[in-house]
Amino acid sequence: MRAPTLRGSKASWLIQALFIAAVVFLVWLVVDFTRSNLQAQGVTFGFGFLNRSTGWSVNYSLIPYSTTDPYWKVLVIGLMNTLWLGAISLTFATLLGVLVAIARTVTNRVFNFIGLMFVETFRNIPILLQVFFWFAVFTNLPNPRNAISYGDMVFLSARGIFVPGLNVTLGMAFWALAAVLAGAGVLIWIYNARRFKRIEPKARTRLALGVLAVTVIAALILLYLGRKPDTDLISIPARRGLNFSGGIQIGPEVSTMITAITIYGAAYISEIVRAGLISVGKGQIEAATALGLSPWQIFTRIRMALAFRMILPSLTNQYIWLIKATTLGIAVGFSDFFMVVAVSITQSGHTIELIGILMAGFLAINYTLAQVFNRINRAIALPGARAGS
Amino acid sequence: MTTIVEQAFGRRFINRLRDRPLASLLNVAISLAGIALIAWIAWGLFSWGVVNAVWTSDTGAEACRGATGACWAVIEARWRVILFGLYPYDEQWRSVLGGIAIVIVSILSCLPVFWTARRLAGLWLVGFAIFYGLMRGGVFGLSVVPEASWGGLSLTIFIFVATVLLGMPMAIMLALLRRSSMPVISSAAALVIDSVRSLPLLSILFTAAVIVPFLVPQGMSGDKLYRVIAGCAIFFAAYQAEVIRSGMQAVGRGQEEAATALGLSYRHHVGYILMPQAFRYALPPTISQIVIAFKETSLVVIVGFFELMASANAAYGTGEWRFAYVEVYVFVAILYFVFIFSLSRYGAYLERNMRVGKI
Predict the structure, then answer these.
(1) Are A278 and A105 a contacting pair, CB within 8 Å?
(2) Considering only CB atoms, which chain B residues are within 8 Å of A20?
(3) What is the pLDDT of residue A231?
(4) Residue A150, CA atoms < 13 Å, CB-side half-sphere
(5) How confident is the model over B209-255, as pLDDT tens digits?
């Protein structure tokens, strides 16, 4: 509420000065109390502990890690795990969400009903309950000896899900995937950004092919570098004694988090997408039909394309929310960023510093995500349309 | 041939088939597949949950040995753990009455009769006094049950209601401060809102439960339960502040100018003109924020509270019932579903009846 009488007046400046003084005083008080509390515990403030070795292990890591590694490394691992989990489950959640949204908007009552049931069920149950549920399911699968198998390639057991994989270290696989994602991002940018619209189509195609080639070569080099010596390139899991050897083991914690975030996220994302699809005017569809476009063309070129503008802002919020939901990993022992910070706090006692790092980490992730999506949003906005609308 | 089919199905059906024969045949096939899927799921659930289910637990977990369906016996055996958590067994009636008191007060405060600040405040003071007296004891000869032993459904409802009641005034404050014309104050409010919104609730709960005792003098941090509720409330307030602010922006400028022209003070303008309209505009997102707040009470289990979720884990986690996790989770999921679904239905009712211009 604007109060014109106060603007720039002496009273206003006095109030603001008092406010600042009160905040400074409060912060000083808290700092003082904290210092004396920490002194009583024999802990001093400082970031020196980041170079100390942790002495404890994490159960899921994309890069090699041992108990002698320093604290900063374990924090990096946590951050990587959060991003990794976020990337996978957000992708799945979006795909499933779009499918459900389509099921809810097609002219077929049966499919509308299936979509409705999906959304109403999974939106109205807390995600933590879903996490616990899936964890109970994944840890109650049969033991490796009696594992459920699909064509002797994929095995479901209480030790985790085993799938065929490349004989490449997990860290390098991560970077290879990052390279592919970056390449895909650049390709999308080239085909959509206005700055490349000025280039001739032929030159643009050549540029895109170049980017594609560089991406593929980079990914292959990364995979080759990360290749484990003296092994076949593709490894297929096989029963060996009480466990499996070879292949990729997806532990119950990871499967739980991916399943829970995917399903819960899809229920929300589908509502956002559905709102976008509904918002596309009937006239647009009729015009497209009159022009003789095929149903697929109408869907991809008209409905989805127009709906996308409506969807993107809410989708950004939902993505940020889902990234934050990865912190529920602590409930099942997945070492995401939050869990690593929480364990570090109890182990090292450097509470304030670590909470600062946690906040900085999440601010950085969310801010980056919001910036990227805002850029896309601005890029696809109709010329002359109000920003954010 | 055609005429028989025409007589059987009518001209319109035939015309539709004739216009898009392949598409409609495909549509029928897809529909049948969909119906088959629904029937398969429904039959599976029915035979698991009803036909083959074991309902009574006369012989403990042994009753479910060899059963192919659900073992609802676990609910019969463990329902007191699920609903009351750690609360002392003989005192659980107090937890029931306390929970009922809160629910009654919640329902009463939905009646327009109570919609003045003074009446609402009085109602809730009485409600909380009854709840606290019953749950904690120490008055009228009731034995003391410390907050750490509260649990189950009553605790979930208490945390939820307290979060919303505490968070709503904070949200209104933050929204007003953010709209303030004083740059220092509005940017401070924006900083608070934006930083809380970018953090996971778990980290705020963790801070409230574990870190706050470091920041204040020894013995001044209060019980963990109230710190955690304050954390939930701040989180709710940061989101709700933006919802209210968008509602305020929807109120036309003419309203403000008219209020100024009438010589209303800032307090009266906000209280009688701005807020009532802003709230009506912001009703749908407010309802969804409240629903989200209810779901998020479940997170307090991570910082060691024994609310509904934690008691569910405890109910099947002990030895003999370990196999019956699906039944326990389904039961708790149904409890949550009923609460959340009724909340959002009530919200939809409010939306229909409180649209701007309707009252």
Answers:
(1) yes
(2) 184
(3) 66
(4) 8
(5) 888 887 777 777 778 888 899 999 999 999 999 999 888 888 878 88
Map residue B2 onto helix, strand or coil: helix
Backbone angles phi and psi of B237, in degrees to 5: -65, -40
Confidence of residue A168 (pLDDT cuts 50, 70, 90): confident
pLDDT in tens, A294-339: 888 888 888 888 888 888 888 888 998 899 888 888 888 888 898 8
Cα-flanking dihedrals φ and ψ of residue A165, to 5°?
-150, 175
Using only C-alpha atoms, what is the Rg of chain A?
26
Token pair for residue A230? 């003296």
Measured between beta carbons, which residues in chain B are less than 8 angstroms from residue A360? none
Mention every residue, 6+ apart, whose C-beta is less than 8 A from residue B55: B72, B73, B76
Interface test with A, best of B20, B27, B203, B292 (most A CBs within 10 A): B203
- Tens digit of each residue's pLDDT (9 = 90 or more) over A60-83: 777 777 777 788 888 888 898 899
Whole-angstrom distance, CA of residue B283 vs CA of residue B272: 17
H helix runs in chain A, sequence order:
10-41, 71-105, 109-123, 127-139, 170-192, 194-197, 201-225, 252-279, 282-290, 295-297, 305-325, 337-348, 351-380
B209 neighbors B300 (Cβ within 8 angstroms): no
Radius of gyration of chain B (CA): 27
The string of pLDDT tens digits covering residues A213-264 is: 999 998 888 888 777 766 666 777 777 766 777 677 788 888 899 999 999 9
A24, A345, A152: which is closest to B184 by C-alpha?
A24
For residues A247 and A241, the answer to whether their CB atoms sit within 8 Å is: no
pLDDT of residue B248: 87
pTM across the whole model: 0.83
State the Cα–Cα distance between residues A338 and A316, nearest whole angstrom.
Answer: 21
Q: Does ipTM surpass 0.90 in this model?
A: no
Please state the three-class secondary structure of B115-176 as a single string.
Answer: CCHHHHHHHHHHHHHHHHHHHHCCCCCCCCCCHHHCEHHHHHHHHHHHHHHHHHHHHHHHHH
Q: Are B101 and B153 in contact (CB under 8 A)?
A: no
Enumerate the residues of chain B whose CB falls inside 8 A of the CB of residue A108: 27, 30-31, 34
Chain B closest-CA separation from residue A106 CA (Å):
11
Distance between CA atoms of B250 and A11, rounded to whole angstroms?
A: 29
Residues (pLDDT < 50) of chain B are: 1, 359
Q: Which residues numbered 326-345 in A keep a CB inside 8 Å of some CB on B?
A: 327-328, 330-331, 338, 341-342, 345
8 Å CB contact between A247 and A170: no
Give DSSP secondary structure letters for B261-277. Answer: HTT--HHHIIIIIIHHH
